[in-house]
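hi! just following up on the protien thing from before. the input was this:
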Amino acid sequence: MATRKTSTDDLLAPVTLAVGQEDLLLDRAVQEVVAAARAADADTDVRDLSSEQLQPGTLAELTSPSLFAERKVIVVRNAQDLSADTIKDIKAYLAAPIEEITIVLLHAGGAKGKGLLDAARKAGAREVACPKTTKPAERLTFVRQEFRALGRSATPEACQALVDSIGSDLRELASAVSQLTADVEGTIDEAIVGRYYTGRAEASSFNVADRAVEGRAAEALEALRWSLSTGVPPVLITSALAQGVRAIGKLSAARGGRPADLARELGMPPWKIDRVRQQMRGWTPDGVSLALRAVAEADAGVKGGGDDPEYALEKAVVAVARAARLRR
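and the predicted 3d structure came back as:
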């Protein structure tokens, strides 16, 4: 591929290889190339194809000479799933790419379709890494980079609060950074993030707790796994479980009366009195004691006393759900 330079800065290199499984980064890799092509030629023709749409012979049709010599960008998604014959077509094209055409191959990485990866790299394709972010530290770095890219400053505490509130979805994190920078002047701090986003993680953790104290173990475990996958801190979940069980214990021991009276006595809003009354059916004093011990053990586990915080939470959720059914 000696037709043009193929450095990582050349967005119009004959072939760009975007490798990874992070959808936001893959889409951005495509958007950057398309923007560069349209900056060079506003009439650039963009073809965005799935692996199923790029059949043997299709590439030859798309890259055939045009009477108007128009610039083209051909995007191929899930390139690791291309058929063997289509991969042969791409490899043949790599040997003699066309000047006004840019191909963007989106590849998940890994062993599947590795031959195409190797061929594109050997031909000098421009490569963009799009790895899936799996660790909280990686998401934190992403948020910091987003603020920097927009020319704005945010305190470390603000970045951490945003990750804690939003979770692991990079699209949502990027959208939140964009909104904050558009709405707020000056340095973005933790208090600002709190005004915009506090409550999202808490709502997710209370969903886990509600299902558990209602004795719905399967639904509680599903909510737990979703919460953990979206980055909800485990300590928020143990806190919500503890509050849910304590609320049942308090209401069980309280005198009967109107929700407004009980709300004042127990320090709960009236709407919560009604909800806890529905949740407490089947609970016994022994069940409350068992559930509180289970939550205390989980709390110690997620705060460093155990090797597997997720397992500790799962045990607690199951224990609370079982305790809710002692009388049933």
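Strands lie at 15-20, 45-49, 72-76, 101-107, 126-130.
The first helix runs from residue 23 to 40.
cheers
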